[in-house]
Write a structure and sequence with these properties.
It is built from 2 helices and no strands. By secondary structure, it is mostly helical. It is rod-shaped, with a radius of gyration of 26 Å.
Length: 64
């Protein structure tokens, strides 16, 4: 019993699938890295957001 030779379309599809897989892995790695940076700097960002919201609340309270 012998196997049929691999068709050209299967080789192309494999190459395309590997390329898409690598791009997906790179995207996931980028999102992970951005998430880690946001979490590690989150305390600073939270303080800045709080200061902005306090300032915005103060300006809306004094408006006639």
């Amino acid at each position: 019993m012998s196997f049929r030779p691999e068709h050209e379309i299967h080789r192309r599809r494999l190459g395309r699938n590997v390329g898409v897989g690598l791009l997906l892995a790179a995207f996931v790695a980028l999102m992970f890295a951005l998430s880690i940076v946001k979490v590690t700097q989150g305390d600073l960002m939270h303080q800045a957001d709080h200061a902005q919201s306090v300032g915005a609340a103060a300006t809306t309270e004094t408006a006639p």
